[in-house]
Amino acid sequence: MLAIARSELIQIFRNRLVLVTMLIIPAASSAFYMYLHDRIPGLDLGAVAAVLMFLVVTMGLYTTAVTTLASRRQNLFLKRLRSTALDDPRILAGLLLPVTLITVAQVAVILTVLSVVADPPAELLLLVVSVLATVVMMVGLALATAGVTNSPEHAQVTTLPVLVGVLAIVGWVGFTGTEELTQLKRLLPGGSAAELVVNAWNGGASVADSLFLLAPTLAWVAVAVVLAARVFRWEPRR
Amino acid sequence: MAALPGKRSGGWNGCMTSSAATPVIDVERLNVRYGDFHAVKDLSFQVGRGEFYALLGTNGAGKTSTLETVEGHRAASSGTVRVFGRNPRERAAVRPRTGIMLQESGFSPDLTVRESVRLIGSLTRRTDRVERLLGVVGLTDKAGTKVSQLSGGEKRRLDFATAVYGTPELVFLDEPTTGLDIQSRDDLWDAVDRLREDGSTIVLTTHYLEEAQQRADRIGLMHQGVFHREGTVAELTRTLPATIRFALPPSAPELPIPATRESDGTFLVETLGLQKDLHVLLGWAEDHAVELRELQAGPTRLDDVFRSIGSERAA
Fold first, then answer.
1. CA distance A230 to chain B (A)
2. What total number of domains does chain A contain?
């Protein structure tokens, strides 16, 4: 598993396109949001943190993971890996470990910058938990999406619904709160995770209530895993 | 090419007989279906320890489905497949003893040759030296080259290197010489010969029937999901007549044995008594001072066994 992870890391640093998608775009977006935060007084810091985090996790992790899996399948590298003694979960873990760790590091850096530029989060531990739950959810959705993606090029289309949808939901929930349409907002993918980040950053909500918000995110993980188990393919269609 | 050392551990002595107690591969009433399409029908066969078994067939005969099931890449619809007495889908148990050369290369284009061999080799859980393997397949000079820059033949050799990493007990070679030049082909078979000296069992599919005819101990010839024939090369070709071919000058007298005139003007004799008929023909030519031009005589080739399937199909 670590051998695969190491070779993936080598490839990430050799493939400029992947590197650009994974590093430059989220970093630039983050810089833009920080610029907005300076210009617009009274901008909800928790909501900004939620949107920033999701930008990195969707664009850096979700999109890259789907593209990587589709590409490794298309050139039969997945089949090659399955010709060895390694089992399927370890193959997937090895393939996705580097991009996941890089994403977690990116989120950590960006949120650290935010807490230095503006105010630090009220509940650090809760923030960490919500980031990790979000990462797991997006990895699950990436596996499911990869199942319906035929090629790396196709990934540009297949990732759009989740990418745009989740970002829209997070922006909506982050900036308008969950006073109205509470159930809907919490059940949509990313909705409760966004609320959790807002609560963790701004404080004021009880920890028990906040932990309850993990449930929808974990439910989406389950949905994604079930979907992935049904639609994920290891070899290209013939 | 460097020699393959006998790196195998454990109490296995490389016995070459095909009648070893437990077969390495044991397939019983295998069926593979894709929706309505029945690709493999009630197929049963065994491959003994140290044996060289060739799985051949017409296009769409079901040999890839069979091979992929035995390799553990595909689940059987019904029937049992055992490799080393285990389900081939139990990768942790079977794959450390198995090397697989896929029909199509599946390497990451951004990794180098050395990195690819090291990665895939280490995942087999066997041990070997990457430099040794690159020597075996003649890719030492390309060690630092990215896979995307290799030719088709070089990719096949890379594939072979990962399959024989650590000298596995069982090696699957799926069309191993497709795209290889003559020299690389000879080198590959030399390496296979050394694997066999170490006692490895070889399962081959190929479109080059000569390779199978020259090397295989036994052949399973598939057609429409079942074995059209299975047995040694001699058993397969025995049922078909041997052939004698020659051209004659226009003035030649009548032939002593029945022959058909081919479209290119040469004569073809099909016979189940090659030695006797050849003797008669040569005696006749000697007596009449006739020159038999382009004379060829030989046993049935595997190609002809294949053609006979084709004609049965047309009939």
1. 16
2. 1
Mark yes or no for CB contact A76/B102 under 8 Å. yes
Chain B residues in contact with A69 by the CB 8 A cut-off are: none
Interval A29-56 mean pLDDT: 84
pLDDT higher than 90, residue A195: yes
The answer to whether B106 contacts A4, with C-beta atoms less than 8 Å apart, is: no
Q: Does the residue A237 lie in any domain?
A: no
The minimal CB distance from A76 to the residues B71, B104, B120 is found for B104
Which residues of chain B, if any, have pLDDT below 50? 1-20, 315
**For residue A238, is it within any domain?**
no
Phi, psi of B148 (to 5 degrees): -60, -20
Which tops the pLDDT comparison, A59 or B160? B160
Nearest-Cα distance to chain A for B162, in Å, is 10
Residue of B nearest to A5 (CA): B119
Chain A closest-CA separation from residue B311 CA (Å): 29
Q: A120: which 2 tokens?
A: 């630090």
Q: Residue B272: helix, strand or coil by DSSP?
A: coil
Q: Which residue of B has its CA nearest to A234?
A: B73
Distance of alpha carbon B76 from alpha carbon B26, whole angstroms:
13
- For residue A236, being part of any structural domain is answered with no
Q: With respect to residue A68, please indicate whether it lies within any of the assigned structural domains.
A: yes
Check: complex ipTM more than 0.90: no
Residue A15 domain boundaries:
2-231
What is the phi/psi pair of residue B295, to 5°? -65, 130
Spatial separation of the C-alpha atoms in residues B221 and B233, rounded to whole Å:
10
Backbone torsions φ then ψ of A39, nearest 5 degrees: -80, -35
